[in-house]
């Protein structure tokens, strides 16, 4: 099973319920204070208490008074109205909280470092933005409902004291016993609920395997069975843990219900027998207690959902903490988009990077044999050059590309642009120099970020790349992405060319092109890009084309083995292509 590198501690480790932090979150960040929901809830509970009072007065009266009937009707009408308004406002609050949490988490994901995003085990992220965000958002409805119910109980307890003080004491006793039952049950319940959520992350990871690996899974039944067994295992463990959590929640609720039932027995049997309370008072107390039974059940039922939401709050906070730790600097991800910049020289000076997997759960650092070091790398690049990077699998070519494009920050050495070091403050400006088609590229369905002028450049490039018959641009989006692998890569190149950035990076672009398109790429497109003044950096294994670049960089074991210059080779290709 995939391990997760979680910075948060489990609920049981924390030793506190997290309810305080949950309520603080709901009140402070959940917009509770700015919503009319609190006012509606208070009004609904006041009118409900008035209704209880009116019912009780009418029930105990010798004759029905018109005023009491009118009071009852008014109380019913206003209770229904305010309860409805409170419900609508609280659901608005739920959706607002959900939207806020999801946009905040997405923003943090957009800001996260490439290292974090390139990890495969993102089941945790999916689970948190769906399940946990729902749990915490719906807690605001439960919070309002509970507040409304608690206010009714708070109004009714003094009234019970007023009717008969022994009943008042017994009612308070029942509330205290119920609260103790809940508090005792919630620690083990929360611990199981949290473990269940963590198991759900594994489940999402395996579902991701199904979606990504469907072809391999179709070809070998045993592979599919093995994955299915893992999915069943994760789902079963989650079920067991959730059932355990609910068993504890239910135990707490049973204690509270027992206390309420004990209270009813005490009122019906104990009061007349031991306190000599008259039947008329017993009936009045009984009516009030029965009418508050609903609000008590509401509070008791919601306590479990608060515990689940407290777990969700902890897990969301843990992910936020991870994302903050993994965030790029503000300057790298915020601020207005800079206009396409120019450069005259890019220099890598003693640049190094260490690649490692996320450590398994419980481990502090990856083992040495799980690390790969690239560099130190020294390299100077200038506009108008065509640079090919070659080397065996695992030589470090893609890592060099990540370092060069500013996606990965070097651990040692520095990158200089026109003699100035690239720092977090100017990193985004530096990245704006590049357009790229990575070996594992992603095609967005829309032309995000391209201005109108850039968008108008895409169709000519589609024609040049022999895609005009398959894809059109409609309202800033591609008409289709249902294309072959080679076509998709050419589509990605059409966007990169339309961006017209000074440096174009192509990682194994030709690998999935047919011979005709491969020839077009090496003999026409690349020389043309250089002629237009672009620095072209292409990772390639096509040895027979190594003579078509100005510089050939060979990599091995994370180092640059050779940097051979063949001046003018690419320009000569361009001249030949244009017939000059
Ligand atoms: N997260 C990681 N943890 C540890 N090692 C890693 C990690 N990512 C990559 N590596 C290792 O770093 C080395 C360089 O990888 P890189 O992707 O840069 O190679 P490459 O030259 O582009 O290879 P290819 O031609 O196969 O694409 C490889 O040996 C790879 O196994």
Can you characterise this structure?
The protein has 17 helices and twelve strands. The chain is α/β, with parallel strands linked by helices. The chain has two domains: 311 residues, ABC transporter transmembrane region fold (Up-down Bundle), CATH 1.20.1560.10; 166 residues, Rossmann fold (3-Layer(aba) Sandwich). A six-stranded mixed sheet has the order 6-9-10-3-11-12, sandwiched between helices. A four-stranded antiparallel sheet has the order 2-1-4-5, with helices on one face. Strands 7-8 form a two-stranded antiparallel ribbon. Helix 16 links the parallel strand 9 and strand 10. The chain starts with 10 loop residues before the first helix and ends with a helix. The N terminus is likely disordered. It binds adenosine-5'-triphosphate (ATP). It is found in: Cell membrane. It comes from Stappia indica. It is a multi-pass membrane protein.
Write the layout of secondary structure elements.
Blueprint lengths: L10 H4 L4 H10 L8 H24 L5 H46 L2 H4 L5 H41 L1 H48 L1 H6 L1 H55 L3 H47 L4 H4 L12 E11 L14 E11 L4 E6 L5 H8 L7 E6 L2 E2 L5 H5 L2 E4 L14 H13 L8 E2 L2 E2 L6 H15 L3 E5 L7 H17 L3 E5 L11 E6 L2 E7 L3 H10 L2
Parallel strand pairs: 3-10, 3-11, 6-9, 9-10
Antiparallel strand pairs: 1-2, 1-4, 4-5, 7-8, 11-12
Helix pairs in contact: 2-10, 3-4, 3-6, 3-10, 4-6, 6-7, 6-10, 7-9, 7-10, 9-10, 14-15, 16-17
The chain binds adenosine-5'-triphosphate.
Adenosine-5'-triphosphate binds next to strand 1 and helix 12.
């Amino acid at each position: 099973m995939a391990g997760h590198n979680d910075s948060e501690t489990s609920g049981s480790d924390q030793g506190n319920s997290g309810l305080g932090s949950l309520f603080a979150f709901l009140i402070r960040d959940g917009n509770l204070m700015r919503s009319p929901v609190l006012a509606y809830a208070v009004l609904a509970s006041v009118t409900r208490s008035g209704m209880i009072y009116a019912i009780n007065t009418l029930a105990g009266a010798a004759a029905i008074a018109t005023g009491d009937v009118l009071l009852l009707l008014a109380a019913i009408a206003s209770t229904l109205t305010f309860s409805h308004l409170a419900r609508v406002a609280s659901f608005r609050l739920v959706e607002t909280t959900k939207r806020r949490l999801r946009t905040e988490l997405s923003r943090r994901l957009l800001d996260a470092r490439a290292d974090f995003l390139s990890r495969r085990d993102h089941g945790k992220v999916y689970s948190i933005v769906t399940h946990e965000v729902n749990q915490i958002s719906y807690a605001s409805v439960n919070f309002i409902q509970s507040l409304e119910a608690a206010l009714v109980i708070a109004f009714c307890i003094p009234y019970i004291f007023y009717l008969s003080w022994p009943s008042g004491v017994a009612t308070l006793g029942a509330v205290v016993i119920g609260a103790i039952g809940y508090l005792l049950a919630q620690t083990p319940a929360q611990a199981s609920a949290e473990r269940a959520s963590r198991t759900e992350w594994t489940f999402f990871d395996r579902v991701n395997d199904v979606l990504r690996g469907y072809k391999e899974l179709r070809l070998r039944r045993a592979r599919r069975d093995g994955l299915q067994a893992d999915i069943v295992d994760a789902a079963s463990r989650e079920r067991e843990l959730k059932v355990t959590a609910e068993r504890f929640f239910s135990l707490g609720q049973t204690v509270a219900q027992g206390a309420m039932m004990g209270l009813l027995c005490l009122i019906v049997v104990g009061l007349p027998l031991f306190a000599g309370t008259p039947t008329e008072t017993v009936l009045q107390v009984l009516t009030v207690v029965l009418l508050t039974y609903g609000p008590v059940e509401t509070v008791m039922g919601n306590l479990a959902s608060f515990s689940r939401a407290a777990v969700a709050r902890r897990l969301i906070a843990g992910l936020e903490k991870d994302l903050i730790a993994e965030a790029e600097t503000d300057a790298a991800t915020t601020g207005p988009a800079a206009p396409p910049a120019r450069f005259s020289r890019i220099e890598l000076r003693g640049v190094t990077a260490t690649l490692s997997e996320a450590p398994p759960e419980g481990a502090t650092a990856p083992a040495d044999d799980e690390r790969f070091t690239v560099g130190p790398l020294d390299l100077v690049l200038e506009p108008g050059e065509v640079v090919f990077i070659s080397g065996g699998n695992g030589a470090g070519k893609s890592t060099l590309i990540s370092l060069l494009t500013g996606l990965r920050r070097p651990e040692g050495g520095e990158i200089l642009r026109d003699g100035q070091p690239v720092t977090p403050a100017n990193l985004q400006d530096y990245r704006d120099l590049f357009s790229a088609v990575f070996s594992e590229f992603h095609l967005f369905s829309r032309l995000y970020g391209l201005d109108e002028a850039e968008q108008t450049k895409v169709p000519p490039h589609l024609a040049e790349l022999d895609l005009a018959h398959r894809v059109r641009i409609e309202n800033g989006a591609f008409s289709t992405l249902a294309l072959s692998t080679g076509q998709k890569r050419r589509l990605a190149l059409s966007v990169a060319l339309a961006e017209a950035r000074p440096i174009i990076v192509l990682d194994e672009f030709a690998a999935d092109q047919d011979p005709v398109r491969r020839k077009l790429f090496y003999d026409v497109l690349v020389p043309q890009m250089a002629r237009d003044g672009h620095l072209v950096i292409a990772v390639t294994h096509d040895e027979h084309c190594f003579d078509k670049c100005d510089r050939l960089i060979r990599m091995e074991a994370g180092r640059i083995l050779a940097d051979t210059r063949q001046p003018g080779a690419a320009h000569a290709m361009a001249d030949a292509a244009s017939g000059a």
